[in-house]
Automatic annotation (TrEMBL):
InterPro entries: DNA-bd_dom_put_sf, MerR-type_HTH_dom, MerR_fam. Gene3D superfamilies: 1.10.1660.10. Residues 14-82 form the HTH merR-type domain. The keyword ATP-binding does not apply. Pfam families: MerR_1. One of its GO terms (molecular function) is DNA-binding transcription factor activity. Keywords: DNA-binding, Repressor, Transcription, Transcription regulation. This is DNA-binding transcriptional regulator, MerR family. The keyword DNA-binding applies. It comes from the Bacteria.
């Protein structure tokens, strides 16, 4: 699984809202609504246009399916926030372990 700090093409914000509409079947209004409800976080170009990543497209499809199943945006926001906190904790643990290993091996040299 890729971390949120991964710079692979999956996370690069390069896709326009029109293309996202074509890929997901969602309207621009639906996509903007999900942004307003803080379910997705597109970047803005210098001209102010929204730019999405492939992971955003996947998230939008997941959001749309869950909304269709009757979930509310507030429930989805809690789920997304919880997932982000879990990823941050995991990254912090990894950094701490790396630091401990580096310190251990530097002492042994």
């Amino acid at each position: 699984m890729l971390s949120s700090s991964d710079n692979s093409y999956i996370h690069k914000k390069v896709i326009s809202i029109g293309t996202v509409c074509e890929l997901t079947g969602l309207s621009e209004r639906q996509i903007r609504y999900y942004e307003e409800r803080e379910l997705i976080f597109p970047k803005r170009s210098n001209k102010g246009n929204r730019k999405y990543s492939f992971s955003d497209v996947e998230a939008l499809m997941d959001i749309a399916n869950k909304m269709e199943d009757g979930l509310q945006t507030s429930d989805l926001r809690k789920e997304i926030t919880s997932k982000r906190l879990g990823e941050q904790k995991s990254e912090s643990k990894e950094q701490m372990i790396r630091g401990q290993l580096n310190a251990y091996f530097k002492r042994r040299q």
